Amino acid sequence: MRPHRRTTLAAALIGVAVLLPTGAWYVTGSRDVARRSQAIETAAARAIRDDVEGKATRLGARLEDLRLQESVRPFFHYQTLYHDPRGASQGLAVTPSPLASGSPDPLVWAHFQIDESGLVTLPAVSEQFPELTSDADLDAFCSILGELQNALVLGQEPGHAAGTTDEELLITLTESEHPSGP
After folding, report:
1. Termini Cα distance of the chain
2. What are the sequence ranges of the domains in the chain?
3. Which residues lie closer than 8 Å to 107 by C-beta, 6 or more apart?
4. Which branch of life, at top level (predicted)?
């Protein structure tokens, strides 16, 4: 054999000896990396899903507690001034609503009532006794009142201007959802 052929044959054998195990190692390593990557993605998705489900459960429980708390509230608390039936006076004594200062709960945007004519009122804003509303809170409460009028009575999204006619009026509360409903 010639030295040139021997060198070529040796190079080919060395190439096969190196490339064959290296190729096998690469293929098995790629599969293992794909399995590990899939396992990491699955674990991350499961952790996110569990976290979201846990937070949703806590929020649901919090909202249910809030619903129970608000459902026992007497209807007259939604008025700016009311006569406390448990008070000592049987005369014309009235007291400001405990809701007049706004809600301490961050989940409650505003307490309000809708009368039979569709007028939305807040216990914090009194048209009869404007001195009961502090000047600092008046703008905020008027803004809330305007958005409630649009969203609840006119059926518009909060923040949109009222531009509907009487024919376009849409009441979004059903009778059973109305505070004075059955």
Report:
1. 107
2. 1-71, 99-168
3. 62, 63, 66
4. Bacteria
